[in-house]
Write a structure and sequence with these properties.
single chain, about 140 residues, alpha+beta, HIT family, subunit A, 5-stranded antiparallel sheet, binds adenosine monophosphate, binds zinc ion
Length: about 140
């Protein structure tokens, strides 16, 4: 995709701070990190969202994400790490080339400090469960 910034990084047309590369996957430092070491792992081929990625390439991404996560955590000495993957504008996706964020975390860094979960209204959980199971 000529107008995709991550495709242009994969093609070497835009520089990146490369961390990892194999046949299917590229990993590099996020240019605007939540914390130092915040990295991105993505398939080299262009897919917009998670559900479009063929299993072989997704497996390669997850394997690479595991390896990069371990290296990031060890090297920056973070207390924790979030694996985050946004799909669609509503979910905060700005670059429409699927990617995994590896975000090293420390207490008090101010990111994702609360999780505003709320219980289902009566009966809704069972209805949602049945709909999802039927769609699998
Ligand atoms: P998302 O909101 O999940 O689409 O996240 C896109 C991420 O890509 C953001 O965290 C940006 O800081 C990062 N980003 C954008 N352009 C570049 C670039 N040229 N090199 C590295 N990271 C980038
Ligand atoms: Zn792309």
């Amino acid at each position: 995709m000529a107008d995709c910034i991550f495709c242009r990084i994969v093609a070497g047309q835009i520089p990146c701070a490369k961390l990892y590369e194999d046949e299917y996957v590229l990993g590099f430092l996020d240019i605007n990190p939540i914390n130092p070491g915040h990295s991105l792992v993505l398939p080299k081929r262009h897919y917009a969202v998670l559900t479009e990625v063929p299993d072989r390439e997704l497996e390669a991404c997850i394997g690479a994400a595991k390896r990069v996560a371990r290296a990031v955590s060890r090297s920056v000495g973070s207390a924790g790490l979030n694996l985050l993957q946004n799909n669609g504008r509503a979910a905060g996706q700005l670059i429409e080339h699927v990617h995994f964020h590896l975000i090293p975390r420390d207490p008090g860094d101010g990111f994702l400090t609360s999780w505003p979960g709320k219980p289902y209204p009566s009966g809704q959980m069972e209805a949602v469960l049945e709909k999802i199971k039927a769609a699998l």
